[in-house]
Amino acid sequence: MEKHTLEVLISYDQIIERVKLLAETITKDFEGEELLVVGVLKGAWIFMADLVKYIDLPMEISFVSVSSYAGARTTSSGVVRLLCDVDRPVEKRNVILVEDIIDTGLTINYLKRLFSVRNPNSLKICSLLDKPSRRLADINPDYCGFSIPDEFVVGYGLDYNGYYRNLKDISILKINA
Ligand code: IMP
Ligand code: MG
C-alpha cells in the first residue's frame, strides 16, 4: 500500500493573490474586447472558477476535456486524447486556454494546434503552474501563475490518480512505498 506525504508549496492565499494579478493583466490586455475562456478539464476547474471572477470583461466560458495520464502515474504518457470538445464557436473569438499546469507541454501544444486551425481572432495560454524543466514541446504560457520545480503537485484542482483535487493549497506529493 502506497503512503503519501503532502508538503504545502503554495498556500491558497498566495494563489488567490496571484490569480487576481493575472486577471487584472488579462483585463488590461483585452480592454474593449470579449473573451471565450476555455478551461482544460479536470485540472483547471478551480483555477478557472477563481480567475474569471476577477476578469472584468464580457466573456463566455467553455471547457475541453483531455487525457494524457493513465492511472496511478506521475509522468505523462505523451499521448493526448480529446475526450470532450468546446460547445461554443471559436472563429473570430479571443480565446484563452486555461490550464492547471504545463509540464512536458504536449497537452497544451496539442490544444493550441487544435484551436488555431479554427481561426480565432487571438489565442492565448494561461496556466496556473509551469514546470519548465521538463518541457518536450516548444511552448510557453502567455500568462503564468507560478513557475515550480520538478515536483509532482496536487490540490487546487490538480490530482494524483483522481484524488486530492479538493485540497485548498497546492502541495508536493511524496510517494513512499
Ligand atoms: P503535459 O502534457 O506534460 O504538459 O502535462 C499536462 C497535464 O499533466 C496537466 O494538465 C496535468 O493534468 C498533468 N500534470 C502534469 N504535472 C502534474 C503535477 O505535478 N500534478 C498533477 N498533474 C500534473
Ligand atoms: Mg490537466
Architecture overview:
This protein has 177 residues and is α/β, with parallel strands linked by helices. The mean pLDDT is 94. The radius of gyration is 16 Å and the shape is globular. The chain has one domain (3-68, 77-176): Rossmann fold, CATH 3.40.50. The protein has three helices and nine strands. The protein has helices at residues 12-29, 45-53, 106-116; strands spanning 3-10, 35-41, 59-67, 81-84, 94-102, 122-130, 143-147, 153-154, 170-176. Strand 2, helix 2 and strand 3 form a beta-alpha-beta unit. The strands form two sheets. It has a six-stranded mixed sheet with strand order 4-3-2-5-6-7, sandwiched between helices. Strands 1-9-8 form a three-stranded antiparallel sheet. The termini are close together. The structure holds inosinic acid and magnesium ion. Its cofactor is Mg(2+). It is found in: Cytoplasm.
In short:
By secondary structure, the chain is α/β, with parallel strands linked by helices. It has one domain (3-68, 77-176): Rossmann fold (3-Layer(aba) Sandwich).
